[in-house]
Amino acid sequence: MSMSHRATFTLADEAFDYLKQAGSENKSAYVNHLLLEEKRRHLKQAILRANREEAEDQAYQEELAEWDDTLADGLDS
Fold first, then answer.
1. How far is 75 from 56, CA to CA, in rounded Å?
2. pLDDT tens profile 52-68
3. pTM (2 decimals)?
4. Which of 60, 76, 20 lies closest to 68, judged by CA?
5. Is 1 inside any structural domain?
């Protein structure tokens, strides 16, 4: 079951006008959608950053190559 929470915050006039226009009748759903999209974007960036760091880590790549050599150990063709 998903819980709902209330929050009070202040918007600049321009931001509020846009929320009224874009959010239509359900401003809460629109703000929730924006926040969850931002969360996904942030997670995607963190994963890409971690993958980049992993790819640039020479010691890790060497260790990974050693493990790759063992993948076929004991397997019949």
1. 31
2. 999 999 998 888 888 88
3. 0.68
4. 60
5. no
Residue 13 lies in a domain: no
pLDDT for res 71: 77
Rg of the chain (C-alpha set): 23
Does residue 46 form part of some domain?
yes
pLDDT grade for 51, boundaries at 50, 70 and 90 = very high
Instruction: Provide the domain limits for residue 53.
Output: 24-69
Q: Mind giving me the DSSP string for 13-56?
A: HHHHHHHHHHHTT-HHHHHHHHHHHHHHHHHHHHHHHHHHHHHH
- Could you tell me if residue 63 is inside a domain? yes
What pLDDT, on a 0 to 100 scale, did the predictor assign at position 22? 95
Domains of the chain: total: 1
